[in-house]
Amino acid sequence: MKQDKILIIDMGSTKNTYIAREIRDLGVFTEIHPHDMTREELTKITNIKGIILNGGEHRHVDGADIEPSEALLGMGVPVLSVDHDGMDPWPESVEERLKKMKEFVFDVCKAEADWNMENFIAEQVSQIQKQVGDGKVLLALSGGVDSSVVAALLIKAIGKQLTCVHVNHGLLRKDEPEQVVHVFKEEMGANLVYVDAVDRFLDKLAGVADPEQKRKIIGEEFIRVFEDEARKLEDVDYLAQGTIYPDIIESGTKTVKSVKSHHNVGGLPEDLDFELVEPLKMLFKDEVRACGLALGLPESMVYRQPFPGPGLGVRCIGAITRDRLEAVRESDAILREEFAKAGLEGKVWQYFTVVPDVKSVGVKDHKRSFEWPVILRAVNTVDAMTATIERVPYDVLEAITHRITHEVKGVNRVLYDLTPKPVGTIEWE
Predict the structure, then answer these.
(1) Which residue ranges run through the membrane (predicted)?
(2) What pTM was estimated for this model as a whole?
(3) Which end of the chain has the smaller Cβ count within 10 Å, N or C?
(4) Annotated binding residue at 76?
């Protein structure tokens, strides 16, 4: 189907996503690409109506400015160059910038405002059917928003050709495996395979403290589990993933150093036996939710709190131990219970606990204790690229602190993280 596109070319800016979101809000689809795109890469993208060269603080590499490839400049479509992280060399208001962007997109590029979820779903269904044909697909179904929306899209596109696999890697929240099986297998009638791989994952992660290494181990082990499950089925050649646009952007471009690798971007093994199906990889988080609603998923599922692919593995800071992992799981359950009581469940975008591999002196039962702290984090965001801190009422924090220090084994302190994104990230690892 026809869907006009504007390409945002990363020339070293940290504001690529801002421009991309602004143009999508105008109803025109945008994609962010590196400055050195080849002619072959460009021919795979249809309906390119214009190009925005977005320079910024990272444009200087080895003493020289990076320049757009000849293939980009030879496209024969209108080109707009902006600099200073998305702003022209002379200061202008947001209104002026948006007006200039609107004029470029519609008056100069003649793009049509045909970007909406109905068109996106129709295009993705067509692409999935074209890619998969009569093949079979495996999907890692965590029960989170991304995998649930992918499941709905795949069911719409290929129906019974999809097998959903729920892997319990021991890094899920309290009672989550049971909830996932109940909702998807019993209520939704999905073709669901449950895999208990707790010992397998925790044995692989034993003694590993580096967060990047943990992510890669978890990502690779997921693939190995799927390969094992695929062997039990017949002729499964495709692996579906809930990769979304912030995953790809944060994993880095050719001009901007990555924030962190994501388990489904930087953690895949080189000898992957499946062809990937990633229908959400160009959507921001709020767009994924809108897609889920358009597909008819219930709001309770669409607005479920985000959960990282590596699960509690990136919230048990440092080398993962079973007792400290249990402290993360139990404290997280208390936090969610108390937020629900206080009416914060639907108000705050994401909240969770972190337990670092450090201990401090405290007093419990009139005796000296030497135990872990639990760190609380609660943030609000639209697209996961920036985040602000939720101002939790003090009485709620007191109630959470009392419960955690009295109910969670091995914990004697509770701290509250007040760091926005940037300078911090949403997760700790």
Answers:
(1) none
(2) 0.72
(3) N
(4) no
